[in-house]
């Protein structure tokens, strides 16, 4: 029955929001932390190229229009934060890719548990293939630690049959997948020559305070999702998402300077939060209301990266098309799930291709 599935979805949402009803401090008192400071992005070595991405994304949205699902005007698809730089006025090439970049997407926590149920339509891959790009999903253990998944990423990348010459792989980490990728490129230097760029998309780069209030057994509830075949792996997913864990890892592991890093941040207007995610949004707002229901906006930026965009979408809407494949659940629970993901992915790959070609 659809209602049973809706209840299951609600249960999993509660699990994924990592203890939304608890009341203890999300960031408890502790001296077990590296020295931290919150500064403007440019003072942390972040390059702000939002203006150029906006030009590319707006051009893609205008050109593709309503031919793609979940169309939004550009001004509604992106969030203006602070003083966004002026546009470059450079023309936008919407033709065939010259470099033929391949997006290799590493999903977030528990994805392998609900992948079969979600039954994503694969429209993003079909769309970008029209323009000479490609996109694949890389399988990792959704309930394991970042260290465990980093090894899986390394093995998958090294096993790929790739053409000789300029690297084409763009590693795109969604949510916890961003942390998995960062650990992989640090721990396994042999894979770096195959990687053109690393992109954090709503990435839990600095962790999430919600994970401080959660235990692994809550994440393990995802094993009971309809059709799930996932395992607990090494059982380290929640621990890996705690801010103390992530920030200690960043402090101790400088990123390889030969790679290019990019950050896309979800920064939704409050009315863009799906109803089922509002409790976790409100809970995380006790730390900072500028969150996507799972991660605070500043914890999504890779240190020393290029800031690409702030996206007006909640954490699920950016990457998990629940409402497209389960319309009833979408209308009742995941009420703000619509987002033009195909256009966003095309714009991202075009932006990265152009940026990589720029003299450094």
What does this structure look like?
With 360 residues, the protein is of the alpha/beta class. It has one domain: Rossmann fold, CATH 3.40.50. Helices cover 36% and strands 10% of the residues. It contains 14 helices and seven strands. A seven-stranded parallel sheet has the order 1-7-6-5-4-2-3. It is globular and about 50 Å long. The termini are far apart.
Strand content: 5-15%
Quickly count the helices.
Answer: 14
Q: State the helicity in percent bands.
A: 25-40%
Uncertain stretches of 5 or more adjacent residues: 1-17
Intertermini distance: 57 Å
The third-level CATH topology is Rossmann fold
Q: What's the order of the H and E elements?
A: HEHHEHHEHEHEHHHEHEHHH
Biggest sheet, strands in spatial order?
A: 1-7-6-5-4-2-3
Coarse structural class:
alpha/beta
Shape: globular
In CATH, the architecture is 3-Layer(aba) Sandwich
- Count all strands and give the number: 7
What would the average pLDDT be, to the nearest integer?
A: 92
By CATH, the superfamily comes out as: Alpha/Beta hydrolase fold, catalytic domain
Radius of gyration: 19 Å
């Amino acid at each position: 029955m659809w209602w049973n599935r809706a209840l299951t979805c609600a249960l999993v949402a509660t699990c994924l929001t990592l203890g939304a009803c608890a009341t203890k401090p999300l960031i408890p008192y502790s001296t077990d932390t590296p020295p931290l400071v919150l500064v403007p992005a440019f003072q942390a070595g972040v390059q702000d190229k939002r203006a150029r991405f906006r030009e590319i994304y707006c051009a893609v949205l205008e050109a593709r229009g309503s031919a793609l699902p979940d169309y939004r005007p550009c001004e509604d698809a992106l969030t203006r934060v602070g003083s966004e730089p002026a546009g470059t006025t450079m023309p936008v090439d919407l033709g065939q890719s010259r470099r033929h970049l391949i997006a290799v997407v590493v999903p977030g926590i528990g994805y392998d548990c609900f992948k079969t149920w979600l039954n994503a339509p694969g429209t993003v891959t079909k769309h970008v293939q029209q323009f000479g790009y490609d996109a694949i999903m890389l399988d990792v253990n959704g309930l394991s630690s970042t260290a465990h998944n980093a090894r899986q990423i390394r093995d998958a990348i090294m096993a790929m049959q790739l053409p000789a010459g300029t690297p084409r792989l763009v590693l795109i980490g969604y949510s916890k997948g961003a942390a998995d990728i960062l650990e992989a490129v640090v721990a396994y230097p042999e894979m770096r020559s195959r990687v053109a760029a690393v992109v954090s998309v709503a990435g839990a780069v600095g962790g999430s305070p919600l994970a401080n209030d959660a235990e692994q057994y809550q994440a393990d509830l995802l094993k009971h999702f309809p059709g799930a075949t996932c395992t607990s792996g090494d059982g380290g997913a929640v621990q890996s998402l705690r801010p103390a864990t992530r920030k200690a890892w960043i402090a101790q592991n400088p990123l390889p300077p030969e790679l290019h890093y990019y950050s896309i941040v979800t920064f939704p207007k409050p009315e863009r939060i799906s109803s089922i995610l509002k409790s976790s949004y409100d809970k995380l707002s006790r730390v900072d209301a500028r969150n996507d229901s799972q991660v605070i906006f500043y914890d999504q930026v890779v240190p020393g990266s290029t800031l690409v965009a702030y996206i007006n979408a909640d954490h699920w809407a950016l990457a998990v098309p629940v409402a497209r494949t389960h319309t009833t659940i979408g209308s009742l629970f995941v009420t703000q799930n619509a987002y033009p993901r195909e256009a966003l992915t095309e714009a991202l790959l075009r932006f990265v291709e152009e940026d990589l070609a720029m003299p450094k």
